[in-house]
From TrEMBL:
Domain DEAD-box RNA helicase Q: 45-73
Domain Helicase ATP-binding, first and last residues per copy: 76-247
Organism listed in the record: Aegilops tauschii subsp. strangulata (Goatgrass)
Protein family (similarity comment): Belongs to the DEAD box helicase family.
Name of this protein: Helicase ATP-binding domain-containing protein
Signal peptide feature range: none
Length: 375
């Protein structure tokens, strides 16, 4: 932990001297070269060139989407032609827009309740997806319902009673409502989206996912999006998709173009000191700090607050109500476990600083990522 007295007794070596080039790895030696990135899909300069209708082009402009991302340019034309789509891309590649725009455009032609069902592995991602659907469809009166755990079920029942066009949820809570909520059915769904499919196929979701797929009609369009094409994802593709087109815009080691990374190997005893130094070098920035455990989030947030930073701890032990109610724009520093799946929900707008804590006895490292990436 940070000790001002101890730090004053032993001068810290210059931070720049501890920097390690991107090609270096812990223990020395050359890093493994990344696999060659697949050829990018042909990019269109505007959404209109992809076949997106005028109403949605205007909605994209209002959201600040000036140009399609690679995965959007590759997936949207095929989706608008009625093809099933497999999209492989990293976080920040614009996957949500790649399936939301074709679905909303189809909804304009055939408006009906429960038109599409989107499943995600986490409640935070589900909320984020719903927000993008609502923003894109605000001008056409699109109604979206979010069905996730950790939220009062009666509120969700009232939301279902409004007969939303789009249902976004996690498998467990979605299945609960299919079993228990009168009048809720997915038997007329026209579109099914499995987002973060590689995570949806974990054991905790498998049974719920299988039960949901049994009640969704086979005559539908299916979009499967994932960061990687695992064996389980390939098996699901064969079972759920018909003659799909595959759009791949990322390699195993790729990151979004706007991500800038720096690594610093520092003495374990002074890791927190270096972290504080970096925070002081980024005045006025919104920063996220990732650590290994929930307990570490609380300890580090307390330390930073005592040093004068506006710091807030976020972890998986938070209640959903608390998580939804606090304002992220009022804080300067955030920290939560690196394993938390909802971490990516806050990337946009931050200059990111990720601090990784190594197991006891291992060399300590701090990894800095400066990003303007979009979700």
């Amino acid at each position: 932990s940070y000790s001002p007295t101890r730090a004053q007794k032993t001068p810290l070596p210059p931070l720049a001297a501890m920097a390690v080039a991107d090609k270096a790895v812990a223990g020395g030696g050359e890093a493994q070269q990344p696999e060659p990135e697949p050829e990018p899909a042909a990019e269109a300069s505007t959404f209109a060139e992809l076949g997106v209708c005028r109403e949605l082009v205007e909605a994209c402009d209002a959201m600040g989407w000036k140009q399609p991302t690679k995965i959007q340019a590759g997936a949207i034309p095929h989706a608008l032609q009625g093809r099933d789509v497999i999209g492989l891309g990293q976080t920040g590649s614009g996957k949500t827009g790649a399936f939301a725009l074709p679905i909303i455009q189809a909804l304009l032609e055939h408006r009906q309740p429960f038109f599409a069902c989107i499943m995600s592995p986490t409640r935070e991602l589900a909320i984020q997806i719903a927000e993008q659907f609502e923003a894109l469809g605000s001008a056409i009166g699109l109604v979206c319902s979010v069905l996730v755990g950790g939220v009062d079920r009666m509120q969700q029942v009232l939301s279902i009673a409004k007969r939303p066009h789009i249902v976004v949820g996690t498998p467990g809570r979605l299945l609960d409502h299919l079993k228990d909520t009168k009048g809720f059915s997915l038997t007329k769904v026209k579109y099914l989206v499995l987002d973060e499919a590689d995570k949806l196929l974990n054991l905790e979701f498998k049974e719920s996912l299988d039960d949901i797929l049994k009640v969704i009609p086979k005559e539908r369009r299916t979009y499967l999006f994932s960061a990687t094409m695992t064996k389980k994802v390939s098996k699901l593709q064969r079972a759920c998709l018909r003659n799909p087109v595959k759009v791949e815009v990322s390699s195993k080691y790729s990151t979004v173009d706007t991500l800038k990374q720096e690594w610093y190997f520092v003495p374990a005893d002074y890791k927190d000191c270096y972290l504080v130094h970096v925070l002081n070098e980024l005045p006025g920035s919104m920063i996220m700090i990732f650590v290994r455990t929930c307990e570490s989030t609380r300890l580090l947030a307390l330390t930073l607050r005592n040093l004068g930073f506006k710091a807030l701890s976020i972890s998986g032990q938070m209640s959903q109500v608390y998580f939804c109610n606090f304002s992220i724009r009022q804080t300067k520093v955030f920290d939560f476990p690196i394993k938390a799946l909802f971490g990516s929900a806050f990337i946009d707008g931050f200059r990111c600083c990720a601090a990784e804590s190594e197991p006891k006895g291992e060399p300590s490292r701090i990894r800095f990522q400066k990003s303007a990436a979009k979700i």
